[in-house]
Each structure stands twice: as structure tokens, then as C-alpha cells.
Design goal:
404 residues, alpha+beta, 5-stranded mixed sheet, Integrase_cat-core
């Protein structure tokens, strides 16, 4: 029985304004239905959703293996900040009413929770062998270093092309600088960068343990694939699955790095399922219990040859007898340039990694394409559509320097 018929049976005249607001109708329209003895039409379902404009995108992302509704919602918020999109609960309702479903995820292995006091433990691992394609069709194969503090669940995600010992130590140092201290212990499984096996025996990397001692924490190994001891970091790895929503929707390596940074920021800002609080809130308490980082220059030296340089207008720094590009935002600032034993050049600004180069790249001057595009942006010589093409043409000329 409709609402107006209920009022008729009770002999009560309804409040037309109040009912109109409830059903999305003008009060005079409700009064018309009342006078005619008709039942009201519920127009609420006819109201256009803010998500309708992006339905094609939602359906295409939902069809991608591994992508979750949470990932799609965050992708929409990131790409359309001015669309005033509703919150996640409204998004799941929108999908449910329209039959939009993501592929079911594999059932997680059950394991008990192991809580740690503030400042006690950092768990870290790699999300390895990732492959994504950018908006221009360029394929990127990469890894993501993932770390989480045990008490606050504060996350740290770092893009890395490879998974060498150099990469691992650089990512750990970057994490400690970001957190502003080190925990009592850092725990991981028998990753190849830390352990090798010889004659059935486990042989650990003395370099990594010296680094840990100098930094001021104890490095511990746990059995591989043991959620009971590594559960918090395996949970943090699930956040990286949100990255899949950006497949074919980012531009270049920097676009990929930016997407990872946004996922990290959201992971630390949203309430944790276990604690009920955002990691960023609990981190304020945990930070007080972290130990001071060891001598930063010594730690950087243990990773590779370090120099401090002020970035000139050319956006180039020197290392290993060659010049390497950095982002435009570094001009006029002092950066740390680390030449790694593995053949990489890493550049950090205030503890944050801003550029990574491979010494296998040709030529005495090595510009990353995204850095060169930044340098040309705003120049009157090229239209916006010509900048990337011009950058590639000039980079090819630079590659030939010192060659033929």
C-alpha cells in the first residue's frame, strides 16, 4: 500500500512539502496526486547518479583481474577530483544496483593476529614481477618495496626497477628517513637479496647485517610464506593491488611512481580494519618510540659512493664520470647522489628518492624522458602536442654523443 493511501485510510491530510522532499517531487505535485486519489510516483530511482558519467570506465576497470571496487573508487577520486563523487559506500551500492561486479579474490589463508607495541617492529617485503602498460602503450616491468610498522600499520611503498641488495638497502633507508626513526627490529622472509643457500645451508649477507647494526635495528628473518609472522606486511601488499586500476591510465614511469605515492597516502589516511583508526593517527604515538637513525652519511656510503650536489638549471648531476638528470623541482636544491655498486645512480632530496638511472644507458649525458619533457614544458619553441616528440628526438641526439 502506498504512502498516500495510508493517509487516506487514516483520514489524515499529509504534509505535502515533507513528502515531496522524501520522493524528490514538488509539494504541488504531491497535492495533485492527493486530490486525484492517486498514489505517488517514487522518482528517487530516476535520479541520475554522479557515477553515471563514468559507468563505462567503472565497467572496464571491474573486468580487470585483481582490481577491487575500492581500487576503482580511489581511481575515480584521483582522476576526477572536481566531480564531487560520493563516498565508497554509495559507490558499492551503485555497482550492486547495476550488477557491476569485480572478479572474486582468492580466499585468504586464516591466521591469528599478532600485535606489537609501538616502535617494536617493521615488516617488509617485495611486491615483485609487476607489469603495467601506460596510456601510450609503453610496457613497464617493475617491483614495489612494501613496509609497514607493526603498531600503527603505517605503510611505505617504493617503486623499484630491480630487487638487488642495493635496491633493498636504499628502500630501507628511504623508509627510515620517511618515518623519522628506526624500530627495534625489521622482519622479512628469506629474500634473495639477504640470503643465499649453499650446500643446503642458509648464508646471510654480511653487508645487510652491517647496515642494520649501523642504522640501529635488528634484522630478522622469518620462514617464507608464514602469515602468522608476516601478516601485517602481507596485508599491506594487498593495498598495492589497487595499482592495477591505473593500468593504461598513467603516463610514463613518473606517472606510475605518482600513482604508487597516492595509494600510500590513502592507505595511511583511511581507518585500518583491525585498529579502527587511520595509521597516520596511531603513527603520532609510534613515532615517539622509534630510535634515532644512525649516521646518515655513513649509511648512504654503505649503499654506494655518495656526493652532495646543488642542482643547476640543466637539471643534471654528476656521478661515475657522467651526468644524470633529475626533476625540474630539484633546481637550486642540494641532493644526495649515490653511485651504487650494482650499476645504478640514485638521487635523493630530503631523504626522498627523486631519480634512478642505469649506468648501462649510453652517452655521457643521460636524461630521463620525463625530466626532459619537464625541461621543455612552457618553452615557446614547441606546442604542447610536440613536446614529447621533440624530447625524444633530442634525447636520441644526446645518446650519440661520444659514440659514432
Amino acid at each position: 500500500m502506498g504512502e498516500l493511501n495510508v493517509y487516506r485510510q487514516l483520514g489524515i491530510k499529509p504534509n505535502f512539502t515533507q513528502i515531496g522532499k522524501k520522493y524528490g517531487l514538488h509539494r504541488q505535485t504531491v497535492a495533485k496526486y492527493w486530490r486525484r486519489g492517486e498514489e505517488i510516483e517514487d522518482r528517487r530511482r530516476d535520479k541520475e547518479s554522479a557515477f553515471d558519467e563514468f559507468r563505462d570506465v567503472i565497467e572496464s576497470k571491474a573486468a580487470m583481474p585483481g582490481v577491487t571496487k575500492k581500487a576503482i573508487h580511489e581511481f575515480l577520486l584521483d582522476r576526477h577530483p572536481d566531480a564531487a563523487l560520493p563516498k565508497y559506500g554509495a559507490f558499492t551500492k551503485y555497482c550492486r544496483e547495476r550488477g557491476i561486479e569485480c572478479p572474486p579474490a582468492a580466499a585468504p589463508e586464516p591466521h591469528p593476529r599478532f600485535e606489537t607495541p609501538p616502535g617494536r617492529q617493521l615488516q617488509f617485503d617485495w611486491k615483485e614481477g609487476l607489469r603495467m602498460v601506460d596510456a601510450n602503450g609503453e610496457v613497464f616491468e617493475f617491483n614495489v618495496f612494501s613496509a609497514v610498522l607493526g603498531f600503527s600499520r603505517s605503510h611505505r611503498f617504493v617503486y623499484s626497477r630491480t630487487r638487488t641488495e642495493d635496491d633493498l638497502l636504499a628502500c630501507l633507508l628511504s623508509t627510515f628517513v620517511r618515518f623519522g626513526g628506526v624500530p627495534d627490529e625489521a622482519i622479512t622472509d628469506n629474500m634473495a637479496a639477504l640470503v643465499t643457500f649453499s650446500g643446503g645451508r642458509r648464508v646471510r649477507s654480511e653487508r645487510a647485517w652491517r647496515f642494520a647494526k649501523e642504522a640501529g635495528f635488528e634484522l630478522k628473518l622469518c620462514r617464507a610464506s608464514t602469515p602468522q609472522t608476516k601478516g601485517k606486511d602481507e596485508s599491506s601488499n594487498r593495498f598495492v593491488n589497487r595499482l592495477l586500476a591505473y593500468d593504461h591510465d598513467f603516463e610514463g614511469e613518473q606517472g606510475l611512481i605518482d600513482a604508487i605515492a597516492r595509494i600510500e597516502a590513502r592507505s595511511n589516511a583511511e581507518p585500518n580494519e583491525t585498529t579502527g583508526l587511520p595509521p597516520a593517527v596511531l603513527f603520532m604515538k609510534e613515532k615517539e618510540h622509534l630510535r634515532p637513525i644512525g649516521n646518515l652519511r655513513v649509511l648512504q656510503g654503505m649503499i654506494g659512493s655518495v656526493s652532495v650536489q646543488k642542482v643547476p638549471a640543466t637539471m643534471l648531476v654528476r656521478a661515475a664520470g657522467r651526468q644524470w638528470s633529475v626533476p625540474r623541482s630539484c633546481i637550486g636544491k642540494k641532493v644526495n647522489v649515490v653511485a651504487m655498486p650494482s650499476g645504478q645512480v640514485r638521487v635523493t632530496l630530503d631523504g626522498e628518492e627523486v631519480a634512478v638511472h642505469d649506468t648501462a644507458a649510453p652517452g655521457p649525458i643521460v636524461y630521463a624522458e620525463e625530466h626532459y619533457v619537464e625541461a621543455l614544458s612552457g618553452k615557446s619553441w614547441f606546442g604542447d602536442s610536440d613536446i614529447r616528440e621533440a624530447a625524444r628526438a633530442n634525447l636520441e641526439l644526446l645518446d650519440r654523443l661520444g659514440g659514432e
